[in-house]
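FAQ

Q: What does a record look like?
A: Structure on top, sequence underneath. For example:
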């Protein structure tokens, strides 16, 4: 468990090569409205990153609002600790993937939460830091681990997966129409030597995709890199379970906010929220006999997206979608300012 003091005593701001961790949160006003904080409560930022959303919450609430921030990236936690320094007595940071949410809250002896935020996907800092190997725009070792201590890298997947499994990963997680060809070309390239860097992989992908297709749409490597990143970090596999754990921990009237950046994340969010809001398994038009009661009320029927002003200032918010749910039951008194 890492607290504010644990982070700052290891701080090293003197490194001239250190890339600043971006703190610009997407959909800031919409997230604050979605969390609906009262005059007191405990909120959990399950992907604290550089602390942008966390600081927004703390700046707009009083001293009786506390925050727990989770992240599996130690560089993110360091940046968050520095960004949230003015609120040192109001937050706790923990190094953990949000799949370990229950364990973190148990260690902190916290049973009931007023609000959860999940800001999914890779951070701007991770994309912009060449050493992390997330971006097809920078030449770097093929890594893509959000947790640098994670056991699997993109290099490992690219050089070890069988062709059919590699094609499946690229097709399913990247929604790439040329997945089979890309996998075939990767297998052919690695027979000569391992594919070790991002640019080596980009060249293989460019060779695999027909020239006419490369001239249209996004960068030809975008979908494959997304697919490998998702597979390396098991990003989709942990979502539904984490959402359900969060809702189980919410107080009645508490909120869960999820920001997704591509259709696969948003689909899982939508389906999980819908299942929690409408759990009845009885045949339509018949009285409910299963006894399953809704745990969640949908606050947003459709995802909230960024407005033109935000998109001008932060183009990366263009694909962001926010969904909000509220725990069923009596609304907490402190949400009315009492």
């Amino acid at each position: 468990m890492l607290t504010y003091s644990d982070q700052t005593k290891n701080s090293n701001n003197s490194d001239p090569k250190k890339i600043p961790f971006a703190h610009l949160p997407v959909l800031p006003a919409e997230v604050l409205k979605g969390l609906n904080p009262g005059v007191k409560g405990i909120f959990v930022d399950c992907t604290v990153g550089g602390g942008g959303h966390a600081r927004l919450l703390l700046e707009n609430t009083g001293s009786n609002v506390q925050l727990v921030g989770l992240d599996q990236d130690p560089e993110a936690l360091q940046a968050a600790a520095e960004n949230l320094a003015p609120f040192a007595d109001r937050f706790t940071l923990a190094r953990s993937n949000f799949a370990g949410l229950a364990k973190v809250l148990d260690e902190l002896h916290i049973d009931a939460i007023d609000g959860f935020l999940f800001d999914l996907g890779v951070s701007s800092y991770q994309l912009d830091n060449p050493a992390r190997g997330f971006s097809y725009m920078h030449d770097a070792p093929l890594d893509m681990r959000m947790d640098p201590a994670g056991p699997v890298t993109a290099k490992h997947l690219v050089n070890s997966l069988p062709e059919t499994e590699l094609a499946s990963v690229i097709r399913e997680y990247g929604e790439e129409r040329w997945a089979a060809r890309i996998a075939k070309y990767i297998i052919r390239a690695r027979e000569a030597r391992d594919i070790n860097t991002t640019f080596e992989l980009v060249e293989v992908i460019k060779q695999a995709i027909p020239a006419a297709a490369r001239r249209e749409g996004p960068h030809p490597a975008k979908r494959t890199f997304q697919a490998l990143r998702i597979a390396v970090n098991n990003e989709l596999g942990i979502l539904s379970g984490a959402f359900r754990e969060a809702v189980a921990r919410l107080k009645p009237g508490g909120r869960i906010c999820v920001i997704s950046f591509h259709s696969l994340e948003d689909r899982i969010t939508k389906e999980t929220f819908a299942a929690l809001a409408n759990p009845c398994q009885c045949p339509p038009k018949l009285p409910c006999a299963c006894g399953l009661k809704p745990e969640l009320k949908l606050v947003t029927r459709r995802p909230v997206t960024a407005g033109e002003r935000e998109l001008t200032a932060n183009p990366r918010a263009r694909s962001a979608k926010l969904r909000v749910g509220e725990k069923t039951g009596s609304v907490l008194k402190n949400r009315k300012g009492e």
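Q: Is there anything notable about this one?
A: The chain has two domains: 4-121+236-336, 148-233.
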